[in-house]
# Entry
Amino acid sequence: MRGMKNLPGGWIMIVVDALLEFETVYNQKEPLSSTLFAKMQETLADFHNHGFVHGDIRDVNIMVPKENNDEFRFINLDWSGLLGLAQYPARINTLTIKWPPNIISRRFIAPSDDLFMLNAIRTLKCRD
# Structure
């Protein structure tokens, strides 16, 4: 993280390094390994065990190296927060995004939501 600034309306701007050697899973042409997805599940489990949820695990929010994609970064943490406090925003795109069942605006984000979304990506992008 390079810096942070409070903005009007309760927003917070965070400046981070650009991941120039990375691309989103969405843009990844080659299928990803089951080993990489296992690492993602382990990381999410650790995140959840520490009392946090992500809330927006989609292929556009996971970065992998353009070459030798044996690592990853979860990005877009603006919905993330403490389990039991973090909520989905008032407006959620339900027309073009397949969310977990029972997702409604302002509902608390659950660890099972993150896992549902990661498993959906795995179904589409995993080679093994």
